[in-house]
Specification:
Elements lengths: L4 E5 L3 H13 L3 E5 L2 H10 L4 E5 L7 H10 L8 E6 L3 H10 L3 E5 L3 H17 L2 H5 L2 E4 L2 E4 L4 E4 L2 E3 L3 H11 L5 E3 H9 L9 H13 L6 E4 L3 E4 L7
Parallel strand pairs: 1-2, 1-3, 3-4, 4-5
Antiparallel strand pairs: 6-7, 7-8, 8-9, 10-12, 11-12
Helix pairs in contact: 2-3, 3-4, 7-8, 7-9
Length: about 240
């Protein structure tokens, strides 16, 4: 089996070498870049499986890289994990809004980093165009029928408002991924529903109650937004 190719973008040599060493030891193919421009050139030349991206870079920063990659159809689905210093909550939120899939704060454990990378790659492998268009979405004991606009928990129908249905569908299309409030609002606005940023919190409270025992599967990621537990976490 071919090794997954990871592009590591980090301008601090000590961190770059530490991460490169640990990921290589875990069996990944790792290519390194120390600036935004170098990273973009590397992505144009190689089909990477994941991008590990520092936010603070010389020249074009991590947010700028993320923005450009998400605008390009060729890299729009490339998994991106951001590396950021603690306390940069605003940058984390902006990064997720621009399309980053996950973030890790510095300092971090190499084992945790490897686990988060494998999780992101696993989620990418599980998603496909067919799944994106499927009428039925199933996560554990939760079943969503998009064509009928129905939701059931353990076989029992749950009555949701159009807004609650849209939010739940947004979260469950990519279980385990963190969605900012902005991303959730944008997903719901696609149906012209009147949902504001802070109103999402109110909708989540109501949604959790209606889902009963599965309500706890919708987790709050402090300062960022919400995620729905991945199926392996529901066991």
């Amino acid at each position: 089996m071919a090794k997954e190719k990871i592009l590591l973008v980090e301008d601090a040599e000590d961190i770059l070498e530490l991460v490169r060493y640990n990921l290589t030891k875990e069996g990944f193919q790792v290519r390194c870049a120390m600036s935004g421009e170098e990273a973009l050139n590397a992505v144009r030349q190689t089909d990477f499986d994941l991008l590990l991206l520092d936010l603070m870079l010389p020249g074009l920063d991590g947010l700028g890289i993320c923005r450009r990659l998400r605008r390009d159809a060729a890299t729009a689905q490339l998994p991106i994990i951001m590396l950021t210093a603690k306390g940069e909550e605003t940058d984390i939120v902006v990064g997720l809004e621009l399309g980053a899939d996950d973030y890790i704060t510095k300092p971090f454990s190499p084992r945790v980093l490897t686990a988060r990378i494998r999780a992101a790659l696993r989620r990418r492998g599980q998603s496909s165009d067919a799944e994106e268009q499927a009428d039925i979405v199933t996560v554990g004991e939760l079943r969503i029928d998009r064509s009928r606009h129905e939701v059931s928990v353990k076989g029992e129908l749950v009555r949701l408002t159009a807004t609650e249905f849209g939010i739940l569908l947004c979260l469950t299309k990519r279980p385990g991924w963190v969605f900012s409030r902005y991303q959730i609002v944008e997903a719901v606005r696609g149906e012209d529903w009147n949902v504001t940023d802070r109103a999402v919190d109110v909708q989540i409270v109501g949604l959790r109650k209606k889902l009963g025992s599965l309500g706890s599967c919708i987790e709050t990621v402090r300062g960022v937004g919400y995620r729905f537990k991945a199926q392996e976490e529901l066991v």
